[in-house]
Amino acid sequence: MEEKLFKYSISERIFNKKLGDGQFWQVNQSIIPTETTIRDFATLITRPKAHSWSGGIFKESISNNEWIQSSIIGLDFDKGEISLKEVYQKFEEFGICPNLHYDTFGTSVELHKFRVVFFFDSTINDIGIYDKIMIALEKIFFIDPKCKNPSRIFYGGTNVKITSTVPVSLIKFIEFIDINKISRDNYLTRNILGTNSITANFCNNLYNNYKDKHFLAHNNNFNCTSLKGGKIVDWDMARKKVKILDSFFNGEWLDHNQLFGLVTNIIYIRGGEKKIKEIMKKFNLEGKTNYTSNNFAIIPYVKKMKYHPIPVYKFSNYIEDSDIHDIITEVNNIRGHIEILEPINKISLKEAEEKMISSFNKVLDNDETNKTYIFSLPTAIGKTRLLTNVEKCVIALPTNNLKNEVKERMVIDHTFSPDTIKFFKNSLNTKIEYYYQIGLPKKSMGLIGQVSEFRYPSNLDDIKLAADYITQLEECKNPNKTVLTTHKRVLNSDSFIHKTIIFDEDPLNSLVEIKSMSIKDIIGTQYLHDPLKEVAIFFLPLEAGIYETPNFKINHDNLSDFIHDKNIFQTNVFDFFNSKFFIKNEDMVYYIIKKELPIDSKNIIMSATIPVEFYKKLYPEMEFEVFDIKHVEQKGEIIQYTGRSCSRKGLNIYGKQISDEVGGKTVITFIDHKEIFQNSPKEVHFGNCSGYDNLNGQNITIVGTPHRNNIEYFLMAKLMGVNFDIKNSPMTYQKIQYNGFEFMFNAFDNEDLRDIQLSLIESDLIQAVGRARTLRNDCTVEVYSNFPLYVSDQFIIKKKIA
Description:
Elements: E1 6-11, H1 25-29, E2 31-36, H2 38-44, E3 53-54, E4 56-58, E5 67-77, H3 84-92, E6 100-103, E7 114-124, H4 127-141, E8 158-162, H5 170-184, H6 196-199, H7 235-241, H8 243-249, H9 256-266, H10 272-285, H11 293-305, H12 312-315, H13 327-332, E9 339-340, H14 349-365, E10 371-376, H15 383-387, E11 394-397, H16 400-409, E12 414-416, H17 426-438, H18 441-452, H19 460-475, E13 482-486, H20 487-492, E14 500-504, H21 508-511, E15 512-518, H22 519-525, H23 531-539, E16 545-548, H24 556-562, E17 581-585, E18 588-594, E19 602-607, H25 612-618, E20 623-628, E21 637-641, H26 648-662, E22 666-668, E23 700-703, H27 710-719, E24 731-738, E25 741-748, H28 751-769, E26 780-784, E27 794-796
Parallel strand pairs: 10-19, 10-20, 11-13, 11-14, 12-13, 14-19, 21-26, 21-27, 22-23, 23-26
Antiparallel strand pairs: 1-2, 1-3, 4-5, 5-7, 6-7, 6-8, 9-25, 15-18, 16-17, 17-18, 24-25
Helix pairs in contact: 4-5, 5-11, 7-8, 9-11, 17-18, 18-19, 22-23, 27-28
């Protein structure tokens, strides 16, 4: 994993010793801004080539008035009042590890003088907050008072030791300061910093569902708890259901993070605060535990901050707790219980087939264009068989492999688009792949054309390959022939002139694509290409968050010619300029591109997992007609076990147990969890299930609840016009209603975001279940997930092992 870069200021000159007061101007005038990793920082400040440094970034001169931000803090210890080991122990109590330490130039055998340095996961942008942090640290550690101003310049030193390359959570660091303050101030919460002031200034960890942020009760609608009065909970029942709670009641010592998490849960229970204190005091007196004043200070701090309960699975190390969210919902709700609110009425397979064929033929026979017909169908109803007889249309499939499978089944005369070209000359393939990687597919086509016309150095075999490729594409322009192609090709090309375009399976993943770009690609090339300066200037001061993509004045042809034969970009920069919205998250940009549905044609989409409402929101100007035939009686059986969430994190803990239950059955799961199971197909996994027929009629098992990355939910929502605040859109474990079911689920509080989340999860699960073709086969599909599917015949909380 690539190490994070940090901005700070450093001297251009080497200073291997401390200068006199009258000479310090030499250091000050030598300071310039830079950006490096922690490892590079350690090298730069080490004697005999030691540079001086400041953790701040400044407008011009190095002064408090010119300070902009800091993501690095250095603490000086030169009085001998605390040892290096003791400093680390103080932070270790809170689960914090400083990133490095080194001896200063003034150290000696008699007096160890050292400096401890922290690199934070987020920047401090408010000088008032910075000052408060340093004043508090001075009181906690008795650090050198001269070294706490934001413009402080530190000399380098010797014996540099890196103790962690993982950035320190700024939120945890603030909690460390505040809890120490409360501990020293008779458990009063006056004058604490509070993480609100920090979280208002940044939006990190979008990639990990805000994993380092606590949920603030006054910002969200948490439907299970309230600080006023508290919920009544049966403590005996709670101990039986929550292992870490039972251990705490039995006198097991909990570390800071475990105790903090437990406190965020227990304070919402009536009598909970009193119970915590009694247990901590009881076992301290018995000598079984040694809870400190800092540990007791957690209680008033959490109450003051009104933190939501931290999910138990995040702080408990017991496998029994691996799917527990908060204590109250675990005790007062039955985990995995699915309440059926609206029974589903299913029609017979024969009726469904007749309805599909009749509706499909009517659509084919009409002359309407600029309209999209959506057929929501069950897997294996026979839609592909229906398409093999359709004349004078384009049939688009998700992949070339599926296109080739349908090609073998075609009844009528047809043609097809070529597969991805593979030249004999590897350098040609590398160049084509590079063009696709950075978002220049037209460059790839241009290169293929040059090869076919003898305008690029190539052997005869490659020239023939290129010529055949282009000839095959030309054949696809014949409107009198049915053409088989892929979703991507029909959406990215204007060469198809047919009046009817049929999408076999949902093309949403090709219509709406989320891609990424490294900011370093832009920053690093701004000096080589003038138009990129505009983009670099735009990104440099930009905070993490979600934004609409500006209309940059860049000539794409000129820029693509500029990078010709130069591997300047490593990520997809060109597609970014065509994006609608983007999320900046640390050093990466994630952006969303929306393609238009074909115009001047009749579009037909036939799929088992199409989110109809998505299309209506994404294409409000398009006319849609929907044929909903998805609720059909099945020959096989689908049994769902809902007692565990089977999220990625959950499977990391109890995946082996489920593997033992499943045994040698075929398992479809996450791509990075296949090794847990004895028999998981190499090619089929969540996100890549559509169209595969090799499991037809087999008993299979689906394991997992495929939550997608929050970035995908946020960008999709923005594209659909959903109103939400990215800095305050948490997921909480709550009782929700969806598709006629009521159940407990970890979902967004924002209902529109939640609908996007649930629809995408459902789509992935239905595609996986559909591989067995239970509609026509007497086989069984077992599903391990707490997300209820409308196709499931039974919901069982816990599987009985024979």
